[in-house]
Amino acid sequence: MTTIIKSGQCSMLNRQSKGKIHYDITLNQSGERFIRLTKCTGGGFLSQDDIAESDITACLLDIKGNSHFSSTIFNPLFIGKSANNAAFLAAVLRAEHVISKSKTHLYKHTVLNLDALALLKPVK
Known about the structure:
Elements: E1 2-11, E2 20-28, E3 33-40, E4 50-52, H1 53-61, H2 85-95, E5 99-101, E6 109-111
Antiparallel strand pairs: 1-2, 2-3, 3-4, 5-6
């Protein structure tokens, strides 16, 4: 069983898209956090898998230094086959200040704060 500690929405990575990505950040009984994409108002399918914070962190720890990276590093985290999942998760991680937009590439990212999700307190 998980408890929602935050529900949010954010813009898509493509600034021409008008839709929003809705998501929940949840906490299980063991204290592990998860991100679940819940809806995309701009079109595009998504998988509503629970993605563990520890799995996201493991992907990001593979990034060397201040290197920029593509959203595709998140593809292995999803069971569903939607091609949008990784970019949608990257948009959420940008909104939560875990990653930021690369200064040199429009659709690439840099690691900002790996602890940003862990700092979220459960809503009472």
